[in-house]
Amino acid sequence: MPVSLLAFVLIFGLVVxxxxxxxxxxxxxxxxxxxxxxxxxxxxxxxxxxxxxTEYTLxxxxxxxxxxxxxxxxxxxxxxxxxxxPWLRAAFLFAGPAMNVALAALLFAVSLMIGVLxxxxxxxxxxxxxxxxxxxAAAGLRPGDTILEIDGAPVSTIPDxxxxxxxxxxxxxxxxxxxxDRVLEEPIRLVPRSVHPEDQGAMGIVIGEPIxxxxxxxxxxxxxxxxxxxxxxxxxxxxxxxxVRGSIPPDLTGPIGIARMTAEVARTGVAQLVDWTAFLSxxxxxxxxxxxxxxxxxxxxxxxxxxxxxxxxxxxxxxxxVHFVGIVLLLALFLVISxxxxxxxxQGTPLPGP
Length: 354
Description:
By secondary structure, the chain is an alpha+beta fold. It contains 9 helices and 11 strands. α2 packs antiparallel against α8. It is elongated.
């Protein structure tokens, strides 16, 4: 299995399994029968263990997991979720997304303890972005690198870099680069373009102040991790609201695009990969709480209606039909997004990201 695909499977699997653990924990605490906790998605490969009424299984599709509880198919069973009150069912549904927020806060704290890339004072020009398919990408430059010299000439400021690169367009240049607080032994060689896309420069990089890695002690990292979680939540929600209002064009990606972006992030370092996992976990929190049938948010809408109706449930058959239609529409949306992901990858268009 290629390293990039393995990184996607492990990261997406972690985010989904932690989500399912939230549902699992509340069901167990509430006395709801959990028939199965599965790693991956069916078909089943093997039963790992059985504890009480719960089977723990390993399944063929190695992404994520699931929890199967006794529900509306056994409404008279005292251990069925259908027998529980609306507030407990709401807690069961909300627990999965809540675990994704907790995971994100933990991961942000871990990345802060490892060390985050931060603008620092000093000579050099920092790289904050690398365009796919550009000379910089082909040469192996990464976000977080700092260019110190070009062909032996010092690069102290951004104007220095522009002057040195523009004097050597369409010629090979050698960059002395600092990466992760150490200067690379071998220079990075590339050919800056005189002809390039309008949204890119000669090398295809986004530049700014020099970059260094700053690590925080655990007591600071935990608090800063909580802050980053809150800022990321607000930022993603603001972006979704802007898309709904038409202020910005829709910019969505599916599993194919996420796998591609995960591979790109994995090449930039462990801390960035941990941050990316936290970002995905927050996205899963938000998406699952959208009031869309078949998602946790859509099911919570029916629980809220039951509370408003003072305990009178919507007929389970009708609710099931709504969720079935929701699943069909979500699968159709998934196929459409996946098609556009493939088109963007084929054309070399950057995929949306944090």
